[in-house]
Amino acid sequence: MNAKVLKTLEYHKIIDRLTELAGSVLGKEQCRNLVPLSDIEEIRTLQRETSLALALLYRKGHLSFSGVADIRGSLKRLEIGSVLSPGELLAVCRVLEVCSRVKAYGRKENAEVCEEPTALDAMFDALQPLTPLANEIRRCIPSVEEISDDASPALRSIRRSMRQMNDKVHAQLNSMVNGSARTYLQDAVITMRNGRYCLPVKAEYRSQVQGMIHDQSSTGSTLFIEPMAVIKLNNELRELEIKEEKEIEIILAELSSKTALELDALESDLTLLTQLDFIFARAQLSKSYDGSEPTFNTEGVINIKKGRHPLLDKKKVVPIDIRLGSDFTLLIITGPNTGGKTVSLKTVGLFTLMGQSGLHIPAFEGSELAVFENVFADIGDEQSIEQSLSTFSAHMTNIVSILQEADERSLVLFDELGAGTDPTEGAALAISILSNLHRLGIRTMATTHYSELKVFALSASGVENGCCEFDVETLRPTYRLLIGIPGKSNAFAISSKLGLPEYIIEEARQQLSQQDEDFESLITDLETSRVTIEREREEINRYKEEIEGLKKRLEQKQESLNTSRERILREANEQAHAILREAKEYADTTIKNFNRFGKEGISSKAMEQERTRLREKMSSVEKELTLKKEERRSAALSPKDIHLGDSVKVLSMNLKGTVSSLPNAKGDLFVQMGILRSQVNIKDLELLPDMDTAAPYKHQTGTGKIKMSKSSSVGIEINLLGKTTDEAIAELDKYLDDAYLSHMPSVRIVHGKGTGALRKAVHNYLRRQKHVASYRLGEFGEGDAGVTIVTFKQ
Q: How far apart are CA 766 and CA 385, in angstroms?
């Protein structure tokens, strides 16, 4: 692939984005070196790896390769028997830790064990974390500047002796600083010079402090003297430091030896981690622009579905459909400037380069690309003052080079072919160049403003027109690429919209030949017909979608009705059978009893009791039937039957209330029942006549009136959350009185868990109430320890 086209099509910008997504130095290096391939099997392998990594990113999240350093130099030194530094050993340790993390990421879950192994699974399985070696390095070397005391018993002993010796030296020097030598010192401090502990002595007292002079101040007023009393101790300390250095060298040599034994595994891990970092960087790039894996062929067929240029904002760019190589091998695109012609060219070229590099393309699934040996592009203004080349000369120089190198395995892209010179000659040259490429079977795309090229595309076989759509009303391009329709310049329409006098436009029209005018009119008619057909097609598709939706809903409704019908019939048959069996048994028993009464002469009182029992049984059955009828009536309510302010009865709570909100899509609404406002379903409601629920009782007095007024306003629950103990007990006292007068069997007190103080206060209060039969904490599903259930005496 020629290097010039990579720059022209901005392939390097894609590579820069890819490099940023890699986590390791070697991974970034591999990204930077990525170039398009021409072997279709290699391309398919890279694409498959990218797709597998992308699936893992969506399923398991981001995988970081940060910490994989370039340890190839360290491994080479190990190979020849060198000892590694602490920093190098830590770099090896970090590589192994990343290896362990990556291997855990690639481990399959239980549900995935039965899946077919993939190429990435083989890479994950081949990783060797060498956990014992990594743990040993991390134990001995916590950081680059530190070797742990626990690295060896000898090192621990040496450092303990060093600390003791340091203490002795400091004790000796402190006794001098705070004692007889205090007057001789410049400052009452202990300093270090050349690795030896010293005292800052005034120059005039040098003879008063016996010892070795190691340094003096810049002014000469202070001498740094190592007193004779600590020379031996400093010597011993220095000997311990030398022992420490030798012991550290031994520890590093042992760690290097252990690491050298795993040289092959480390080289393999480094290679695999770099490769995986490269693959997952490609997957992250695909995820960033919603990419998909294209299919590849060697027949030169390109079919891009809803493709978006990857360097443009994916929220603003208009997707385009492009095809080339199946019905036609040459596509000529026309249209106004800034309409998207060049972007269409670059999209096809860049998609080809990206696809052949193993990168996904930002297009719909099922997009197809061809494998080309070379891509050539003549795009942009390449005039050169230094080389004395005009725009036309620069383009022609490039075109000559393309014509010499292009073959049937090449993709050629021309932007504004033949521009920069006399329009007649430029159009003739463009037709000749394109005809030559077309005869050779080379896949070619070209943009132009020349009408002659539009006519050429209409008359030649295997050549197709295309255009970038332009809205004359808004004077804006829509950026949609339309294949099969030649573009119209719209110069007259745009000029008119911008305010150019009409007489000038008319005079310009007279300058056109009749043939040119007829051709432009034909294009206008074609464009109008296309827009009309597209609108009708969209309308037909919308109708089809609506019909499909209605059909699907109707089928679901019919299926639901059939299921409900079968269930209702089955339940009705079962209930009828049970009722008949019970009635038969009861009738048989009754007949036997009355026969026995006649024979045994039992008293009429016993017979009357039997008749009473029979009547009670019949009454209970009738009552059940009445309740079922009421339930069926309430179930028949629809949302349009409910209005704000309607009086309703909540069947499950046996309470009356007023509708305070309209039903939502699920049929749920809020009903105000006294102080209680509850959300219920429309199926649980019965519509009452529109009247005051307390009206039948307005003339009652005494207990009955109190009972009804209380029952219509007291809820079955009180919420004490957020209140102090005194506030809660006062409110609870009034609530329990109202609930008891309303003849409620039980109520629910919500006090929460918290510290337990509110619960304790509530229980102490309940223990003293005479009308409370019992109370208990809520069970699972009732609110647990945050709720108390109270039962009243009847």
A: 101
